[in-house]
Amino acid sequence: MINFEFYNPTKVIFGKDTEKQVGNEIKSLGYNKVLIHFGGGGKYLIKSGLLDRVHKSLEDAGIQYIDLGGVVPNPRLQLAKEGVELCKKEGVDFILAIGGGSAIDSAKAIAYGIANDFDLEDLYTGKVTTDKCAPVGCISTIAASGSETSNSSVITIEKGMLKRSYNHDCARPKFAIMNPELTYTLPPYQTASGGADIMMHTMERYFTNIDHVELTDRISEGLLVCVRENLVKALKNPNDYNARAELMWAGSISHNGLTGTGRVSDFACHKIEHELGGMFDVAHGAGLCAIWGSWARYVYKVNTPRFAQFAVNVMGCEMNFHDLEETALKGIEAMEDFFHSIGMPISLTELGINPTEEQLEELAEKCVATGNGTIGFFQKLGKDDVLKIYQAAR
């Protein structure tokens, strides 16, 4: 186990009707005017009455607010820039995101823009760094990204369609309101894609070459099994409160840093998928499913016992003590079978895209450019490695 720091200051307010507490929560923090940031035109928020409940809660607490919709999956930099200008014009001092990772990440980008003078594009392309961010809070409506308690923000830059991230603890939300009932109406595909994203956030940390992280391993394995089981329940019965609650809580724990304590995380799959999301605008969790098996088969020999442990403790495979490689490969296959069982793709073709060889070359080049020529820690991957993974995933 390596040295680590674990920092998770976000206050979690979990359960039924908790969105009604948002006004008093913001008032208790001493803020006066809120930008409410959400996806599209807020059709779901209006139809469900959620936006009205949030408005009323703010009004009852004496908090002023303005609305800004328009967030799309793989949120765009331009909308974040528009949000910054609107906030400065209106004197906004708090950003409230309602939605999933896209709305929360876009809200974080706006918050960075309010607190700093640089061009937001420079932040997400690595030209500048900062430890300053305006305060953010969120009301989650999907169990997926974990952005409600994480330090991460991912934005798509329209010029070149680059999907890039910036991670800093200053962007962790002040509070996260999580009402599992708000996830009942999610389409099955989004529920499954979100569940896969939750699992991948922990798997990116689980596949490590750091020894003696037993407690973190058990936490990770328990979370993965819990998500696998409850995702099936939620897909079978969308109004299963207990299953939805398990998924929502797991989403936050999976990406708040806990399952990475004491070891070095990898996140190569995320970087590989981010390029697909930038070029083809695919659902993030589904994109991860489409490339994970190809990545796993490319790297598993680096630490075959780790993949065998995953196969047995997470996927329920039988250990072959005479052939760990066979066990490892069965675990990868079992994971792909699970993805199929919840309607997720395990190839780029099943994802609905068919990149040309030239596009794959471009994807691989952009991918490793974010890491100065390599990505990953479980196994360092250069451009040729990433290209082979993309090719295998077709």
From TrEMBL:
Record InterPro entries: ADH_Fe/GldA, ADH_Fe_C, BDH-like
Domain Alcohol dehydrogenase iron-type/glycerol dehydrogenase GldA: 9-180
Fe-containing alcohol dehydrogenase-like C-terminal domain location: 191-393
Alphabetical list of CDD domains matching this protein: BDH
Signal peptide region: none
Short name of one Pfam family: ADH_Fe_C
Keywords assigned: Oxidoreductase
Entry keyword Oxidoreductase: yes
Protein name (database record): Iron-containing alcohol dehydrogenase
Biological source species: Tissierella simiarum
Record lineage: Bacteria, Bacillati, Bacillota, Tissierellia, Tissierellales
